[in-house]
Amino acid sequence: MMSEYLRGDSSIAEIARRRGVSRKTVHKWIERYEEDSVSGLLDRSRAPRAHPNAIAAATELLILEWKARYPLWGAPKILSKLRGQADCPAESTVSNILQRHGLTRQLRRRARAKPTVSPRASTLGPNAVWCVDFKGWFRTGNGQRCDPLTISDEYSRYLLCCQGLNGFTGRRVVQPLFERVFREYGLPVAIRSDNGAPFASVGLGGLSRLSVWWMRLGIGLERIEPGHPEQNGRHERMHRTLKEAVLRPPRQNLPAQQRAFNEFRKEYNEERPHEGLNQHVPGSVYEPSRRDYPSRLVEPEYPEGWQTRGVRNNGEIKWSGRKVYVSEALIGQRVGLKPERERIWSLYFMGAELGRFDERAAILKIDDRRKRNDQ
Known about the structure:
Blueprint: H1 2-7, H2 12-19, H3 23-36, H4 57-69, H5 75-80, H6 91-100, E1 129-134, E2 138-139, E3 145-153, E4 159-165, H7 171-185, E5 190-193, H8 209-216, E6 220-223, H9 233-246, H10 254-270, E7 307-310, E8 316-319, E9 322-325, E10 334-341, E11 344-349, E12 352-358, E13 363-365, H11 368-374
Parallel strand pairs: 1-5, 5-6
Antiparallel strand pairs: 1-3, 2-3, 3-4, 7-10, 8-9, 10-11, 11-12, 12-13
């Protein structure tokens, strides 16, 4: 087209007719050529110089500031902090900004086991179920062992306790921590745990000294099935966040590690939005229990017509002059025996049936089906 124009032997109308374009188009290309020579004839972007939906520079800077402050937060959590602004962007826009600045990472999808309903209770509100577990132990920078004990409210995800223990995780260490939490937040309806010590045992009914104390406080027991951590999935997910936040790398010593746990707990409860809570923080959902920590434990009571026995220091009861082993977890407690048929009794502690007692053989039997359920 331009070669025809430059030769000067054709009019604009003739060039437009031969090329099948309008005279206005021919004039446009001539103007471009006269302004920028051959480079003016190259294709130009049709994108607008200013997009009406483009995010403001100040908003983009704010997104990057939130990411710098909380490196583990993704687009949904950062967006929850921007809501209410006049130019609040979409979640995809926040995600694109993080990607553009190299601040995202691709998580490998894990295979998920199908969760089971039992033994989980329906969680209707705060303090219906508390979850407890030990985060896997590790060593601090100076080689000290650290076993973090964590307690959370399942409904609100509120982290009630995150205490690092230096390898001593028995009842005598754990029970005072629970007492402190009970005094501060009250009592839950039930506590969910795995089947390990000190929460449970391989003894009668899976009871441990700690879980017997819980029962005396009027707290129900929930145990997940062995090999099924997904039944305590919300608590396990919190553990993964905890590991990413304060264990990579561990702090130099236990006091420094505990300070990191305390800072994490404050952020987790009061600042970190949770997708399962519609991007609210756990602290805005949780409220302490109305069941205060009592000054006296509940005494076991059994119906009229039952026999009762005290469990001695060796874990045995006395029956018709004979000793019958029950459980060391029940030392000092009173158990009830419900008559079933001739010389056969069901053994109970408070509301929990633990087994069948055959007085002829002075043997306590545990039904195989019941034993599987207890485990």
